[in-house]
Write a structure and sequence with these properties.
single chain, mainly alpha, Helix Hairpins, 3 helices, 86% helix, exonuclease
Length: 76
């Protein structure tokens, strides 16, 4: 993957990255591509999956932080 492709994926929101990842998986499952194209698509899929995981990890942290803030007030 090129640096510009990596930079582009870094700007994707969760839904866009997830939707494109679904399309990448479908294309790989269909087959019919040569090895180089398949590898390039797989690399893009890996980058998209990592972007999705980043979003999910951020959401998880926000929920944990909110629970911790609310939980601290209930302990008194």
């Amino acid at each position: 993957m090129t640096e510009s492709e990596v930079a582009e994926i870094a700007t994707f929101g969760y839904e866009r990255a997830r939707d494109e990842l679904v399309n990448v998986v479908k294309m790989l499952e269909q087959g019919g591509m040569d090895l180089d194209d398949s590898l390039a698509l797989w690399e893009r899929g890996e980058a998209l999956a990592a972007r999705c995981e980043d979003h999910l990890a951020g959401a998880r942290r926000r929920v944990e932080d909110a629970l911790a803030r609310h939980g601290d007030g209930d302990r008194e």
